[in-house]
# Entry
Amino acid sequence: MTATTGQQATARAERMRLLVQPVLVLILVGGVLGWAFTRDLSATQKASMNVANIATLTWQHVLITVVVVLIVLAIAVPLGTLLTRPGFTRLAPIFVGIANIGAAAPAIGLLVLFYLATRTTGFWIGVLPIAFYSLLPVLRNTILGYKEVDPALVDAGRGQGMSALTVLRRVEFPLAVPYILAGLRTSLVLAVGTATLCFLVSAGGLGILIDTGYKLRDNVTLVVGAVLAVALALLVDWLGALAETYLGPKGLR
Amino acid sequence: MTDLLPAEEHTGSGVEIVLDDVVKQYAGQADPAVDHVSMTIPAGETVVFVGPSGCGKTTTMRMINRLIEPTSGKITIAGRDTHSIDADRLRRGIGYSIQQAGLFPHLTVAKNVATVPGLVGWDKKRTTERVDEMLDLVGLDPDTYRDRYPRQLSGGQQQRVGVARALAADPPVLLMDEPFGAVDPITRGLLQDELMRLQSDLGKTIVFVTHDFNEAVKIGDRIAVLGNQSHIMQYDTPEAILANPANDMVAGFIGADASLKQLTLARVRDIELAQCPTAYRNGSVAELRRELAEQDAPWGLILDQRDRPLRWVSPEQLATAGSLEDVGDPLGENVSLTSTLQDALEALLMQASASAAVTGRRGEYAGIITIDTLVHALQEVREEHADDHPVDEASAGEPTP
# Structure
């Protein structure tokens, strides 16, 4: 009931961050775009540095991130749920091990290997390796979330006549949600960061600006691409923090 | 009817539970956790399973609502084999209260209490009314507590909500697994008092597990003292167990203060009181002196006109007294016919006369209690239970009337 001073300080810092972070994103985006568009841009620069192109690339980047996270959620949450059910817990190390490999391997390596294996390029060739790469946080936190549920609560639920499935739905899952959301936030940040590599397999994203700027030795394009990628990552992290703060069960906050 | 729960118009008063040769053997263990236990838990009584940690008392209790399935043997509730009822439905008809309450932290107090009504499909109005009724019953104001979350409650309040939740669907049977084990002693005492008050109104069949023998003596109509593998060492009323423990283990479990515990169980009205010479405050000094001398009594009592005792007086004090109006020592703690013998002992220890004046309902003199009275009363209880047979395996499960 009484939070320690340490917890209170952390909570205050977190609230501050929730306010400051979106302001920072606005400043970064406004600043870098203002800086770029008030300059004399060459014809080649104008080819990539126009509002329509930047909007398209940003949208592609967001789309990659969202699809990756949806795939991660669709795989990791049910898998984590299954792996904590009686009889399946022994399989957990295997799947966590596989997800560990995905997370430990460099994202760029996964992308290239997947491209080499499929010999194709495009949206899904970018999305799938990144989903594999971002799987671990949600999977590990889902398992952790279920493990942290006090066994006495499961006992209380069963003892009152809830079926195992009802206990899972009404007690275990809601109590695991804060952990899953924390994992989701980490996965989001991983996904939005590694999506900058998707240009390698022609899947689009802000990485294209960085790549173009680098290849043409065009610092304006390079800086705009890099700063926008950072701003988007901060924004996505902020949304994750928002979800963590407001989507968890009310009684636990 | 497949449920234990009462139909809407009935109340779920207690039903009989019978354990018949119940065994629980875990795979990979040499000895069974519960070894051939048979017992009858009478309808509407509170039966306390008490025994050392790991003796299998909780396992035995959990087999009643099939949270643990017996390896062999049969358990019937209200004459129906529990195995013939779907386990989830069975449990909805059996209230369940555990240590630290086990409230769902993400649900409000109201939603917690409404768990079983929700599972058995009560409509919203009936559930809401029932939740408020239950919170009232356990002494929590519904308007204040309904929408709170468990973490906003004290340990004692959580425990009350736990009891309210267990009773919400009005089950005939209540299983309580050390429900008050995690609260401070003062709160525990209050919760015990309240459970006893509830039980005297509701008349459920309660199976209560504890390792605290004092708690067992206080709340149990019967106590089953369990040894290893849930062997029943003794199954009887608290009075009988305290008066005549079946074996050394039971005696050891009771502790060295069996007689003091016994005193908490009997009321002053249940025993034969002693008498002493009395006189009204306007009576004669010489008369009282003569009576004291005749009976060789060390103390007499002075009463007012309505028979209420006022002061103790000794022959020495009377020797120099002119009237009975202001002579003698004041009475101490008041002992009434409904006080426990322990209260009486406490009162008489505080008196120079080593006796306590007992008053009736209107405060009138009813007799006195001395150490001899108490010793005599305890002796009678012991004699009454002296012929209780030490428990043997065959008859262990039958409650002696």
Summary: Chain B has a mean pLDDT of 88. The two ends of chain B are 32 Å apart (CA to CA). The longest strand of chain B covers residues 17-24.
